[in-house]
Every structure is written in C-alpha cells, then in structure tokens.
Amino acid sequence: MNFKRIITLLLAIVMICSLCACAGKSVASNVDDEGYFAYSIVRSGEGKNVTVEDAAKDLRAVMKDNFECKISIAKDNAAEDFDGNLEILVGETNREESDEALERLKKNRDNHAGDFIVAVIDDKICLIGATDEMTAVAVKWFIENFCDDLESWAKLKKGYEFIYAPKVSAVVNKINGVDLGLYSVVLPEKTSLLIGMGADEFIKYYTSFGYNVTECDDFDAKDEKEYEVLFGDTTREASKSVKVEGDNYVIKVVGKKIVIKGGNHLATWRGAQRFLEEAKKGAQTGKGFEWSDGYTINGKYDAKEEGTYTLNWNDEFEGTEFDLNKWGDYRNQANGDTPGASALGGKTYHYNVFGETQFKGATKDLIYQADGCAVLATQRVTDVDFVNSTLSTYHTMTYKYGVVDIYAQIAPYPAHCSYWMNGASASNPGTNFGDRFGYQNRACMTEVDILENFSQNNSYAANVHRWWSMNNAEGASTGSAHNSMDGNALYSANSGNSKKFTYDNEKYGKDMTGDFHMYSYYWDDERMMFAFDGKVFCDYKYTENYSVSVHCLMNYFITSCGMGNAAYGATYNKNEDGDYYEHKIDYVRIYQTGAINSQLITAWPQKQQKGEMKVFYPENTIGAQY
Question: Is the pLDDT of residue 9 over 70?
Fold first, then answer.
C-alpha cells in the first residue's frame, strides 16, 4: 500500500473523530499591513526531509488560497524565535513546543508509531507525528479541519489538543516486566543481509501494532539504549557474553538485553526466525510470554527444514588458484570485444581469469587469488592505455531468486568497481550461454547493478535496467531501448528509498574503500532489495511496474575493476593518480529457499567442451512463469 493510500484511509477514519473543542479564545487570525497572516510556518532545517517539507508547502498553499493572504514559511535554524512569535510547527523542529508535543504523544501510549498530535502550546501550533509519514497525515488532517476558511480556523482554540491514536491489538510479550515493543534493534556493524532481514521482520511485525521500534548503531557506544534486541555478533557486552558455534543458535536474556546469536549467518538467521515465532505466539494466544534475566532458548539450524535458506553457491577464495568450475570471463570478453576508448586518448583492454588480454604488451597478473581473497586489479600499461579486469559466472552458473552477500574491499579513486547481474545472450541462438543452460525467450533483458561506485570512495549506486531491441515494420533492427530506476522519484536521492548509498566516513573514521564491507542483494518474484553491511537502503517493488516477468528470469554474476575509461568513472589524471589499484573479494555467497520459485544451475568450466549440469530446485520453473 503506497503512502497516498495510507493518508486517504487514515483521514477517512480520523474525520469521524470529535474535534473535542476546548474552552478558550480562538487563536489569532489577523493579517498585518503587508498582507501576511499572523502565523508563519516553520519546519526543521536539519537534513533533507522531502515528506515533511512537502507537507509544510501544501499547508502554506492551502492557507494562502483559502485565507487570501500571504503566509511565510521557513526552516527553524533560519528563523529566530521570540516571545509572542506565532508559528505553526511542522514536525520535529528545534522549538521547545515541538519537544513538548512529541512527549505528550509518546506518553499517551507505548505503541504510538501510527499516531499524531495537533496541539496549541502557548504561541505555537504543533503538528507532529511519531514518524515523518504521520506528520504528513497530521498536516492533512489539520488542513481538512481548520483551513477551509477563516471561519473554520476560528474553531481552533488556545490550549487545543487532539491526539490521533487508532485502535490496535496489544502484544503482551514482556522481558523483565518491560514491553518487548519498547526494545530497540541492534545489528553488527557488518553482517549478512539474512540477519538484517531477520531484524527487519521483527521491526515490521511490532510496527504493525503501533510500536516505533528503532535501530541503534553497533559502532557508537553513545547510541546504546537501555533495552535492546541484539541480532548476531554485536560489540555489546551482553552479546560478547554468549558463546555459540557451528549451526547452533541461542536466544538469551542478558540483563536488559536479548541476545540472538548463531555460530554462522544461517544459524543466526534461524535464531531470528525462532524469536519472531515466539513473539507472534503472544499476539495469537493473547497470553504472551514473560522472560526474565537468564531465560534461554537453544536451537540448531537444519538445512533440511522446509522453507529454510540454504547456501547453494559460494566461493571463499581459499588457496592460490581460482576454481574454474565457478569462474570464467564475461562472454569471451578478453579475446572478442573491441577495446574501449581511454580518457588519455588510448585504449582500455579486458583481462580475464585465464590471464588473457587484448593488450599485447607486458602486464602484471591482474586477476589472482591470495590470502583468502580474489583480487581484481586495474593498471595503466602505457602512457595512454589501461587494462581492466572482469570475473564472471556467464559460463558456469546462472540463478533466480535468493540473497547474495559479497564481502569485499573495493578499489579507491580513481578506480571503479562493480557487482552486477545480467541476462544478455540468454535468448540468442549459438551463444555459449544458451548451449549450456538452454535458451530463454525474453522480450527484453534485465540488468541488476548491486554496486557501481563510479570511482567514488564513499558512495555507490544500485540500479535495475531493462533493455530491449527495436525493429521496423519489415522486422529489421532499428537499435535498442532502455529504462531503469533512474528518473523515478521513488528511488531518487531525495527519497527515503534512494538507490544511491552514501557512506558516513566522518563517523567511521575512514573511507568506505579503506575496509571490507558487505554488499548484498535480495531478489524474489515481487521485489529486489539492496543492502550495505546488512542494512537495506533501497527496496525496489516491481510488481506494480512494467513487464514484471523480465525481472523473474535467470541471471549470471559479473564483477570488475577498472579505470581510465573515457566515459565511465573518474577522469584519470596521470600526474596525480597511481598506475595500479586492487579490488579484493573475501567471499561471494548465494542463499536460496524453496519457499519461492528459486532456481540455480551450474555447468562445466568455460574451456571444457562438455560436462554435467546441476540444477537446484529442479521442480521449479525457469522463465516467465513466476
């Protein structure tokens, strides 16, 4: 359900509520000599909050038209406050009255995430919700009730207060007498998306009951809360006190903390599922649980359990040689494709896992395996020419649906790195891919970019592209067409679901490229999610978008490292930039579950004429039947 539908539904409910008019004088409604209304509108000046900003602008537009006057609007940090200053405060501003209104809202009930308050406090009219979305609903409600004309405005009295608190069922689970809905969630600084998904499911469940479950930072001790659910191996002392190995998991109350911890990512994920199962029993039975300090549940991850996630494909890159059963080049790139143009007027060449390159001069080994990592490097090999490296499963593995975790350290500026999925050549007769995996009739091809950093040290983009060929009436090709998440406001930088991730290097003390991080991707028949260090930053729901089926066909995996391209990444400066940079991958893992229409197929090595294929979930369909 989208936000507009939520607002419509809530307003329909709220409009039947009594305004509970308070005794007292109406608030001011005069207009000064310059035509300005007595009250000005003020919103927070911290950060970029499109939801609240748009709500404030909507309020101003309505009041301006209906009251036939001017209305000033400003950010709180740009508008000085003083005694007698009449303001309409939208959201969490720096005014004391905003804090007081929010505190009244929180004290009204614990599970207040779906609530808002409209209150006249001294010289201020406070419109604020427990979330930004509910603040926008509060503004809509205020407009409907008080902004039709000056007569309806006169109904607003000094001391007025209205709290919207929809009726929701209570969840009665308690830890040492404290409502579980008041607990915050903590994830390790770097973890699998599986564990992040487990925490998100808990948050989503309790949010549905009106609780505002927040996520705290494991990195900063100042962010620690009194009551916390610790998912995985966090740095909290309670988490450190619980020891667990292998496929075992533990759920344990340690003081005011709840520890959910497994011996590996899959075991921790199963522990998170078990914890949610226990929490749901409380709501379903109406009895709930009462856990005290020391209460413990022990369990074990079982790969044979129906609907569970299993590790179906991975490479930990141990040893000194690549596993050619898993890796090859990308569509014979090193020997077949035409070199690209370099930023210095030369060429950019390909290098593959076999040590093959189009460049005929001496070069270092740009793809190698050492110290438990795959290394992909890029090098300037002449005054104007570059060699870039690519690794792919185009010849060896293709899959549909699941969770991908890539634990890696990407190369710094001016190099650029990528992790992406592709389905090109899947429907083209005579291709190596089709001969191995079978041909798929695709109306168009999906490309999924898990990461493209475009030479940026502290940001990267995720994306989903759709490519197709165009023909004229005679059937001759007239080129290709393309669309993607770009240009869609739902995934823009100003949205809360941006496809661009920005890393806070000031907070963590180093650039993103200065350390290993987890780059993850989730895929099923309804959505794709992109995550950094286990935390989702972009959720692409494509069931309401064009040609859903093209996002539900098999893809293979590609990763690369390069620099010096004429039209991609940073503009190389040979007087300032280095000649050689490395990108390191600790592991790549693909987890899948039979609970959805998953598929994974492995084939024989690229340079082997034939061999055996292995099909995971052979009973599931390949293709558009999703």
Answer: no
Residue 4 DSSP symbol: H
End-to-end CA distance of the chain: 22
- Contact between residue 402 and residue 312 where contact means Cβ atoms under 8 Å apart: yes
For the beta carbon of residue 336, count every other beta carbon within 10 angstroms. 10
- Bridge partner list, 538: 530
Q: Is the pLDDT of residue 85 over 80?
A: yes
| Rounded CA Rg of the chain | 28
CA-to-CA separations, 288 to 110, 175, 258, 292, in angstroms, rounded: 17, 11, 16, 13
Report how far apart, in Å, the C-alpha atoms of 201 and of each of 1, 204, 501 are. 17, 5, 22
Alpha carbon distances (Å) from 542 to 393, 539, 608: 25, 9, 38
Q: Please, which residues bridge with residue 320 across strands? A: none
Produce one character per residue of 249-287: b if its CB has 16 or more CB atoms within 10 Å, e if not. bbbbbbeebbbbbbbbbbbbbbbbbbbbebbeebbeeee
Rounded Cα distance between 115 and 137, Å, is 9
Contact 373, 571 (CB under 8 A): no
Dist CA 397 CA 605 (whole Å): 10
- Could you tell me the two tokens for 559? 């990763």
Q: Please state, in angstroms and rounded to a whole number, the distance separating the CA atoms of residues 486 and 504.
A: 23
Cβ atoms of 38 and 85 within 8 Å: the answer is no
Q: Name which of 29-33, 190-194, 488-492, 613-617 the model is least confident about.
A: 488-492
| Distance from C-alpha of 128 to C-alpha of 139, rounded to nearest angstrom | 8
* Crossing angle of helices 132-146 and 50-67, rounded to 10°: 10
| Mean per-residue pLDDT, 264-270 | 98
Is the distance from CB of 564 to CB of 515 less than 8 angstroms?
Answer: no
C-alpha distances (whole Å) from 380 to each of 300, 362, 376, 419 are 51, 11, 14, 22
Residue 461 CA to residue 240 CA, distance in Å, equals: 34
Question: What pLDDT was estimated at residue 247?
Answer: 98
What pLDDT does residue 283 have?
77
Composition of the chain by helix, strand, coil, percent to 5: 20, 30, 45
Of the candidates 125, 112, 126, 134, the one whose C-alpha atom is nearest the C-alpha of residue 52 is 134
Question: Is 248:299 a contact under the CB 8 Å cutoff?
Answer: yes
Q: How far is CA 308 from CA 23, 111, 201, 273, in A?
A: 60, 31, 15, 10
Which residues lie closer than 8 Å to 522 by C-beta, 6 or more apart? 193, 197, 402, 403, 404, 528, 529, 530, 531, 536
How many residues appear in the chain? 626
- Are 292 and 257 contacting, i.e. CB atoms less than 8 angstroms apart? no
Supply the pLDDT for residue 543: 65
Residues 6+ positions from 268 with CB-CB distance below 8 Å: 192, 194, 195, 198, 231, 232, 233, 249, 260, 261, 262
What are φ and ψ of residue 301, in 5° steps?
Answer: -70, 135
Tokens matching residue 276: 């949610």
| Contact yes or no for 501/459 (Cβ under 8 A) | yes
For 366-423, the pLDDT digits (tens) are: 999 999 999 999 999 999 999 999 999 999 999 999 999 999 999 999 999 999 999 8
Cβ-Cβ contacts under 8 Å for 47 (sequence gap 6 or more): none
> What is the three-class DSSP state of 422?
strand
Determine the average pLDDT of the residues in 578-599: 96
For residue 14, the model assigns a pLDDT of 46
Residue 7 backbone dihedrals phi, psi, to 5 degrees: -60, -45
- The pLDDT of residue 8 is 46
